[in-house]
Amino acid sequence: MPPRHETPLAGRGRSSVLAALMPRAQRKRRLKIRWLATALVLATAVLCFWSVHTEALAPTGAGRLIYLAHDALWVPARSWVWTAARPWSLIWLLAPVPLAVLALIEFLGLAQPLRFLQTVVLRALLRSPLAEGLVALQSRIGPKDGFLTRLISADLRVFEDAARQAAEAPGQRFPETDAAEMARRARWLMRLCDGSDAVQIRLCEVSALLARHDPPPPDLTVLDALWQDAPWAPLASPTQGDLVQALAQLQAAGMDRAALAAATLGAARLARQDRAPRALDWFARWAELRLGPTAFAAELAAAETLISFEFWAAETEANLLRGTAAAARTGWLGRLLPGVETCRPSGEMAAAGLAAAAPERPQPQTEQGMAHVRAS
Predict the structure, then answer these.
(1) What is the distance between the alpha carbons of residues 322 and 2, in angstroms, rounded to a whole number?
(2) Please, is 307 exposed, middle or buried when counting C-beta atoms within 10 Å of its C-beta (0-12, 13-18, 19+)?
(3) Long-range CB contacts (< 8 A, 24+ apart) of 116-124?
(4) What separation in angstroms does the CA of 134 have from each of 1, 3, 146, 304, 306?
C-alpha cells in the first residue's frame, strides 16, 4: 500500500491512542478542477474534429487555424502511425497508451496504479545495494519531503510498531534483520530531512527501541550520533541525579516539548536499566501537570505527540513493578489472598477494559508466583 501523505518534519503522534484522535494529514487534491479541466480538453478535441469533418466552420477567418493544425499535425501523424506503418506501429503504442490511461486514472483520483508501481520499485531499490546511492541522490536533488521520504517514514513506522509489539508480548523477539532495517531507515530519514527537533526525537525513540534489542544492530552507534548534538540529548540517557533535576524543571514548567519528550525516553530507559523509582515519579508528576488548566499542559500534550508516550509510561511501570510483583505473591498478602491479583494491569489496554485475563496462577510458595503485569 502506498504511504499516506504525512510530513515527517512535523511531529505526528505515534501513540495508538493519540493517533486515533488526530485527523489524517492527507494531501489536498483539487479533483473537481481536474475533472473539469479534463472534460474541457476532451470537449475541445471532439469539437475540433467534428468541425473539420463536417466543415462546419468556414476555411477563412478564425476557423482557418483549426484547418491548418489538421493539415500540418494530424494528417502527417496519422499517415505515419496508422496508414504507412500499420500494424507495426501498434507495437510501440502498447507502451505509451496504457501508461497514459493509468496516468489519467490517477490524475482523476479514481485509483493510484502508478503510485503503487512506484512504491514497489522504490521498496525493491531500498532493499538492494543501490539504496545508499538512491538516498544520496534524493538528498542532493530534492525535494527533501518527496515521495521517497514519505515512503521511508511509513516503512520506519511499521518497524516501530513491530518493535513495540515485540516488547509487549512475553517471549516474543524482534528479529535482528528487522532491527537492522529499522536503524537504516531511521538514518536515511535523518539524511533526507532537515534535522528538526521532531525528526531527531523520533530517531532518539528509535534508538531507545533498538537499545532493548540484544545484540544491538550495527547502525545503532551511527544512529545515536545523529541526535547527540541536540541540546536535549543528555536528557535521553540520564543518571538518577539528572532525573531529579529534570523532575525539578518539570515541576517548574521550565522545559520545551522536545526536552520533555527526550526526558520521558530517558526516564523509561533508566527504569529498565537501573530500576530507578524516580522514573515512575516522572510520569506521576506529568499526569498531575497534564490535567491542570495551565499553558504548560498544552506543552505536555504537544510533547506526547512526538513519541509513543503511553507505551513508555506502561513499560516504565512494568519494569519497576516486575521486581516487586514476585515478592508480593510470596509475601503475607499473597498467602492470605491466593486467588486475588496484587497488581492491576496497567497501560492503555487496562484503561480501555481490554486487558487480557490473568493466566492460571501457580502455588504461591514457588518462585514462579509473579503477579500479572500487563503493559501496553
Answers:
(1) 41
(2) buried
(3) 116/2, 118/2, 118/147, 119/1, 119/2, 119/3, 119/151, 122/147, 122/148, 122/151, 123/151, 123/155
(4) 21, 18, 13, 33, 28
Buried residues in 310-322 as b, exposed as e (16+ CB within 10 A): bbbbbbbbbbbbe
Hunting for cell 486475588 — which residue is that? Answer: 340
Residue 138's identity, in one-letter code, is Q
CA dist list (Å): 202 to 135, 151, 323: 19, 16, 30
pLDDT in tens, the chain (376 residues): 444 434 433 334 444 544 455 544 555 678 889 899 999 999 988 888 888 878 777 777 777 788 888 888 888 888 877 777 777 777 777 888 888 888 888 888 887 888 888 889 999 999 899 999 999 988 888 777 788 999 999 999 999 999 998 888 877 888 888 998 999 999 999 888 877 888 999 999 999 999 887 777 877 888 888 888 889 999 998 888 888 899 999 988 889 999 999 999 999 988 888 777 788 889 888 988 888 778 888 899 999 999 999 899 888 888 877 655 545 555 555 566 566 555 555 444 444 444 443 344 333 333 333 333 333 3
Amino acid at position 223, single letter: L
Q: Which grid coordinates are listed for 265?
A: 525516553
Neighbours of 5 (CB within 10 A): 15
For helices 176-192 and 147-168, the axis angle rounded to 10 degrees is 140
